[in-house]
Amino acid sequence: MRLKVKIFIQQIIVFLFLLGLLPAHAFVHRHRFIIKEAPYSKLCSSKNILTVNGQFPGPVIYANTGDTLVVNVQNDGTQNITIHWHGVKQPRYPWSDGPEFITQCPIRPGTNFSQRINLSDEEGTLWWHAHSDWSRATVNGALIIRPANKTNYPFPRPAAEIPIILGEWWKSDVQTVVNEFLASGGDANKSDAFLINGQPGDLYPCSTNDTFKLTVEKDKTYMLRIVNAVMNNLMFFSVANHQLTVVGTDGAYVKPFKSNYITISPGETIDVLLEANQNPNHYYMGAKAYNSVVGVPFDNTTTTAIIQYRGNYTASSPPIFPDLPNFDDTNASFNFTRSLKSLADKTHPINVPLNITTNLLFTFSVNTLPCEDESCSGPNGDRFAASVNNISFVLPRIDILEAYYKNIQGVYGDEFPSFPPLNFNFTGGSLPVELQRPDRRTEVHVLEYGTNVEIVLQGTSLLGGVDHPIHLHGYSFYVVGAGFGNFDKDKDPLNYNLVDPPLQNTIAVVRNGWAAIRFKADNPGVWFMHCHLERHVSWGMEMAFIVKDGKGSQEKLLPPPPDMPLC
């Protein structure tokens, strides 16, 4: 069996080389992901969880800028699965991007799919995760992309690089949580714990030994590569008595700045330098949820790990605890995110689109739909829903990419609106209840190749409003502006940062506020955009772009591999 898999992967590599997808200088990393159930015990109870190779979190993948990954995904589990390479642009090759029924049909139990991931200009920390239902709760891992020559970080090389994956844990089966809240029409049950590298930390029951520990040497500097793999919460993160120097986000460098804490959205990555410059002792690193909505239940616990200095000393017991912002500190969250600025130097130039040819305004809302007999668990007996520009997205049963490539009719519409169909005071109070009712459709927005796109991402106060971490597949974008309230098309662009805006793939739109992003539509294919709060995705807060082919030979969508999963 292994010989057959090896031969097949070699055939895939030859196929890619003949297409010109594997440059002669690119290094090819081969990995095998076996999706399977494995038993794990936490918080005084045990259950089986879906894993890659039996690991939780999954294996860390290392590469260098410009390398290629060939990952053979074998589904030995009991449910459909897909794997998304979060933040990888996949130039001209969305076939391995991963979102279920957007760019592929799922990998069924007992089958496999060999994904080819071409790295381009990404450099820093990204991650991979399942992109089908809520499987990413346990199927995820870090993707660390080092500089092409392995040495030229724009800062002194750290003594060590440590992935820090923030996760979430339910005692019950995650799929049961999903099925229950979708059936009831209400909100999902809150989790029982947050995790650092798969461990809750010793503040939770039965968790004294379930604490991640990092040993450091005094006066050395360490890079923490932080990934927020939490399902439904932005997170605050801090290390007791240590300032953090922020140096990167979402696979791109930023101008270094010091902070006592970070705010990190689901889907986002942050790279920080930690200087071990304190008295030898044990210090907690901690993370807890940021929640801006009064009255909405959330997991208000704190996960911890321990930084322990090497040497002989009497450690504090318990370890020294970090100062974290209050759980509802909106300004702390917003101000940290607005502090991110691209490095924008000669070695790491930026290219912000200036002459915008396509202007879009997308509203992101939590909605309701009527429920029979008013028996659902949402507001007023209705069912929760969510929308972009008042369209609550319906996943098709044939993936949109295949339908687009093969011109299969009836799978999707191409009339996703450029602006909200109803113009109202998006962040006002006491909005009419009829504004809560979205349309349920499968619509995409078509972009011509090469257009310079600006999208204003506008939150609304329907049902109170909440922060929305918005992720775009296939692109990184420049976050040129953000603010509270309604976007003002005449005043707000005057304050755009067009000099050194951060290059990101996930941006938190502050509660009842907005963010403006720009990118050049130069990556043909089908690309998903969605909120990275998983319950909002389940309710329909998503859409897709089709970027058409350009005229040149290097501006066209590439053909699919021979082993695409069948619908």
Structural write-up:
With 567 residues, the chain is mostly beta strands. The protein is 9% helix and 37% strand. The chain is built from 5 helices and 32 strands. The strands form 7 sheets. It has a 6-stranded mixed sheet with strand order 10-9-12-17-14-15, with no helix packed on it. A 6-stranded mixed sheet has the order 21-20-25-30-27-28. β1 and β2 form a beta hairpin. The longest helix has 17 residues. It is globular and about 70 Å long. The mean pLDDT is 95.
Strand content: 35-45%
Q: What structural class do the secondary elements suggest?
A: mainly beta
Q: Radius of gyration, rounded?
A: 23 Å
Mean pLDDT across all residues, rounded? 95
What's the number of helices?
5
DSSP strand count: 32
* Principal-axes shape call: globular
**Low-confidence residue ranges:** none
Helix content: under 10%
Strand order of the largest sheet: 10-9-12-17-14-15
End-to-end Cα distance, whole Å, is 25 Å
Main β-sheet, in a few words?
A: 6 strands, mixed
| Quaternary | single chain
Catalytic activity: 4 hydroquinone + O2 = 4 benzosemiquinone + 2 H2O
Organism: Solanum verrucosum
Subcellular location: Secreted, Extracellular space, Apoplast
Function: Lignin degradation and detoxification of lignin-derived products.
